[in-house]
């Protein structure tokens, strides 16, 4: 997570995280547990699955990087890269589902990427600070689509997924705007 302040007199991110550290840790553990339970359920139905916990998740807007890509960008540990790439390259992920929990100004999310033809599912878990998501929410709602990007720490791009419905990620966009410190 970036270490930014929301201005004079406003809480700095380190203070927010410190105030909610036990809650954040508990919700992250719950997210990982839920992701594994979802994977176990899919496996019991014959699907091949991969669960990937992101080490960092960033909310990207088109004007933030070297290119105009935007969406949720997950940085995943290198030891997941080969398995991820093998499934990504061999599969056409036609469906997705999003499961999330908002707590203390943070969103804990599991994105389920589904290839129903080959019965393959990749689950990616991440969390992000709602204070830095307003620009992404506006972009996604305006463009009526959403993207999920997966890369390694050294910025090796592993895959990008397109989602037709941003409301799966942002069911109540106004909630995000209330937290936004970027506008």
TrEMBL record:
It comes from the Archaea. Pfam families: DUF7529 (PF24373). This is Uncharacterized protein. It comes from Halosimplex aquaticum.
